[in-house]
Amino acid sequence: MVERKIFAGPRVRRVRLGLGLTQSAMAEALGISPSYLNLIERNQRPLTVQLLLRLTSVYKVDLDQLQGEGGGLLSQLKEVFADPLLAGELPGDQELVEVTEAAPNAAGALVKLYRAYREQADRLSDLAELLGRDGQQTSLSATRLPMDEVRETLERRPYHFAGIEQAAEAFMQALPAGEGLEAALRTWLKSVHGISVRSLPVTSMPNLRRRFDRHSMRLFLSGRLSPFDRIREIAQEIALLALGQDISAEVAGLKLSSEEARRIARFELARYAAHALLMPYGAFLTAAQRSRYDIDVLASRFEVSVEQVASRLACLAGEGAQGLPFFLMEVDHAGKVLRRLGAQGFPQAKFGGHCPKLGIHSAFAQPGQILVDKVKMPDGHSYLTISRTTDQGLASYGERLRRTAILLGCSLEAASETVYAPAAQLPAATVLAGTGCRLCQRQGCLSRAEPPLTRPLGLDEMVTGLSAFDFL
């Protein structure tokens, strides 16, 4: 019988570096010379079946790990070089195989660069088409940008994904008990996938939160992350590995129009899955009901941030196990809305979220403090809103801290089940708001920033109103 020969030098080198071994130490353990191991790592000698068996017995290396993960990456590289711009550059696929094997990180970066190039070209094509329509709208529609399409899709539907929730619950039940959650997640990564987690100083990762290195099988986390953000990044990496199929199934159900939108949605749902791992649905719902939805108590109970708790409260829409129908909005200093979502979808038509009177804008003047308001809308609907700032990572000296604010809301009828109900009944807590200045018809509003669309301005030289946009 002819012995099968396998050339897998770069993968053997990756295993050795991941274990922190020199060539001499690994060669001695495998019963070969260092020079022979050097030839193997340079793909000048084959990795025989006997050596494969020694690797698996001495270092507990999974054979799948030695087979590598380059198949998918190779197909993506082939797609890149099938572009007419690059079609004549390579005589065959052998060079792509070598690049994938020897430098998977560089190959992945090349794929990302090509995707960015294609997406930018598509956007410019769309823009050129719009500008070329004589007499038609010349500004990009919100749904033409993939990020906006994903955001609007998540706003309109309930922010609950049953498939991810079930998979996350099953995963957490299978984790061994007796150690802290972060330690258990790190142990799972190491034992199942051979991935170790390491924090790097900000100077080493100035522009990244997280990076996975395929060569050394290490997950690098930025030192600027808070403990809460650090464990979420670990959980998100695990979600992509362990719950990847469930995430893909939910992304497919969103029926997005482009590959870029689907990739953005996959990232968003990976963060959703990370929250599902950190705060399992059943345990979190029970704790939320017992604490009467006290955000600070829940953050302490699950050792997560207030922002993470608020995001989790907005997805309690499981069939037969529902919490209060919270909705959530996040804005930056300039008032730009970063995300909107809710257990029943975000109430855009009734609540809007663009009124400058909302507590989410006042929160920046009182960082770290919870502001509770009873918001009354012109149509008679009333809401309980809970607003607070969140810090996005740690800033070094000389850097300006990035701070956003979140608003968690629910109908006033449901507010009695929360710990915040008494504060909402105080006279000072009542806010007469509108869906937005353009649609609001409240007269004499000190906060009005734009004239209404449906009423003429009161241009009377003899009378000056409280606002520059007073109307008749």
From TrEMBL:
<dbReference type="Pfam" id="PF01381">
    <property type="entry name" value="HTH_3"/>
</dbReference>
<dbReference type="InterPro" id="IPR018653">
    <property type="entry name" value="ScfR_C"/>
</dbReference>
<keyword id="KW-0238">DNA-binding</keyword>
<dbReference type="InterPro" id="IPR001387">
    <property type="entry name" value="Cro/C1-type_HTH"/>
</dbReference>
<comment type="similarity">
    <text>Belongs to the short-chain fatty acyl-CoA assimilation regulator (ScfR) family.</text>
</comment>
<protein>
    <submittedName>
        <fullName>Short-chain fatty acyl-CoA regulator family protein</fullName>
    </submittedName>
</protein>
<dbReference type="Pfam" id="PF06114">
    <property type="entry name" value="Peptidase_M78"/>
</dbReference>
<dbReference type="InterPro" id="IPR010982">
    <property type="entry name" value="Lambda_DNA-bd_dom_sf"/>
</dbReference>
<dbReference type="Pfam" id="PF09856">
    <property type="entry name" value="ScfRs"/>
</dbReference>
<keyword id="KW-0805">Transcription regulation</keyword>
<dbReference type="InterPro" id="IPR026281">
    <property type="entry name" value="HTH_RamB"/>
</dbReference>
<keyword id="KW-0804">Transcription</keyword>
<dbReference type="InterPro" id="IPR050807">
    <property type="entry name" value="TransReg_Diox_bact_type"/>
</dbReference>
<feature type="domain" description="HTH cro/C1-type">
    <location>
        <begin position="12"/>
        <end position="66"/>
    </location>
</feature>
<dbReference type="InterPro" id="IPR010359">
    <property type="entry name" value="IrrE_HExxH"/>
</dbReference>
